[in-house]
């Protein structure tokens, strides 16, 4: 998914220099509403990057959307757009998303499927609800920052069905990425992390195993979920810090949530629009390449064009007047 804001916030810049041990271990994070593609577009709730916290492990971007009634509407329509330095993760509770990318991949993502795209030095893709889409769209789009050692890895796309599940009384737990409780996902990751989808029936009181060396957070997608005794509404995230071996959850109504975690990311990052780099110049170079290739279609592009999408590619926003400068990976109060 693209960040389609015309003026991406400059605060989406983070530094690994902050001492993780000094961070709060229970921190509520509230989303902001963002229109996805024009004035009539669907809206998403963006909780990462956040004013108070910009990453959880390598997870650096999280949008939740729906449940939205898109009967008679276009639903999600995100034109071809570029990425560098990250992986995109699409997870659906209801509906469908049609993925196309510059590698020639085309996949119809449905609930239970994992769509994982690795950008490396550059890839373009589009995402849209198919013409014969279901009446409701509900899901999440996440980004994982690539560590320095993987930034030049070749762009790639993976589509996984039948993901492994962790047997936990009172919850349906699907392991999307990494490992949880000894259950490992087949999805390719480049740093120690975990991502799991949680489906909780009414009255559920599950307890999940956690890796104490990871920091964790829970993103609630539907209905309120009580996380470690705190009620978290849909669209919000509760950051949990490090050192926990277990996570207590409760739901009075059927609910869906995502557990995200990983080793605190040890590298400085600069995030702007759809790019994750290390310096201001990384961002400028990627934007320049995208705009030139979007207009001229050279023989050997950095961002291979997306075929099959009916419409123009997304133009890049204007860069801010000042250089993008590192800021702490979390906000010290």
Q: Describe it for me?
A:
- InterPro entries: Pirin (IPR012093), Pirin_C_dom (IPR008778), Pirin_N_dom (IPR003829), RmlC-like_jellyroll (IPR014710), RmlC_Cupin_sf (IPR011051).
- Residues 42-144 form the Pirin N-terminal domain.
- With 333 residues, the protein is mainly beta.
- It has one domain: Sandwich (Jelly Rolls).
- The chain has 1 helix and 26 strands.
- The radius of gyration is 19 Å and the shape is globular.
CATH architecture: Sandwich
Instruction: Give the CA-based shape.
Output: globular
Number of strands: 26
> What is the CATH C-level name?
Mainly Beta
CATH fold category name: Jelly Rolls
Task: Provide the gyration radius in Å.
Answer: 19 Å
CATH superfamily: Jelly Rolls
Structural class by SSE content: mainly beta
| Percentage of residues in strands | 35-45%
Helix content: under 10%
Main beta-sheet strand count, sense and barrel state: 8 strands, antiparallel
Question: What distance lies between the first and last C-alpha atoms, to the nearest angstrom?
Answer: 31 Å
Question: What order do the SSEs take from the amino end to the carboxyl end, as H and E?
Answer: EEEEEEEEEEEEEEEEEEEEEEEEEEH
- Count of DSSP H/I helices: 1
**What's the overall average pLDDT, rounded?**
91
The domain count comes to: 1
Low-confidence stretches: 17-22
């Amino acid at each position: 998914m693209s960040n389609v804001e015309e003026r991406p916030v400059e605060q989406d810049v983070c530094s690994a220099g902050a001492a993780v041990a000094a961070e709060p271990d229970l921190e509520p994070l509230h989303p902001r509403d963002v229109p996805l593609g024009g004035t009539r577009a669907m809206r998403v709730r963006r909780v990462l990057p956040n004013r108070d916290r910009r990453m959880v492990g390598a997870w650096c971007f999280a949008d939740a959307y729906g449940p939205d009634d898109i009967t008679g509407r276009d639903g999600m329509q995100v034109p071809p757009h570029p990425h560098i330095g990250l992986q995109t993760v699409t997870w659906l509770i209801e509906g469908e998303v049609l993925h196309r990318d510059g590698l020639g991949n085309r996949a119809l993502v449905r609930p239970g499927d994992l769509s994982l795209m690795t950008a490396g030095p550059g890839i373009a893709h589009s995402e849209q609800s198919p013409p014969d889409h279901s009446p409701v769209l509900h899901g999440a789009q996440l980004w994982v920052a690539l560590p320095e050692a993987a930034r030049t890895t070749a762009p790639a796309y993976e589509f996984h069905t039948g993901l492994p599940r962790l047997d936990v009384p009172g919850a349906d737990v699907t392991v999307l990425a990494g490992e949880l409780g000894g259950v490992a996902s087949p999805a390719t990751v480049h740093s120690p992390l975990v991502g799991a989808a949680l489906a909780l029936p009414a009255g559920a009181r599950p307890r999940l195993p956690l890796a104490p060396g990871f920091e964790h957070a829970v993103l609630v997608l539907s209905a309120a979920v009580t996380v470690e005794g705190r009620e978290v509404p849909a669209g919000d995230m509760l950051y949990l810090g490090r050192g926990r071996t277990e996570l207590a959850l409760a739901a009075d109504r059927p609910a869906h949530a995502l557990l995200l975690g990983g080793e605190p990311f040890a590298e400085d990052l600069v995030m702007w629009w759809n790019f994750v780099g290390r310096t201001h110049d990384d961002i400028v170079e990627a934007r320049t390449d995208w705009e030139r290739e979007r207009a001229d279609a050279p023989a050997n592009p950095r961002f291979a064009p997306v075929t099959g999408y009916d419409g123009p590619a997304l133009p890049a926003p204007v860069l801010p007047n000042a250089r993008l400068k590192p800021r702490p990976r979390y906000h010290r109060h």
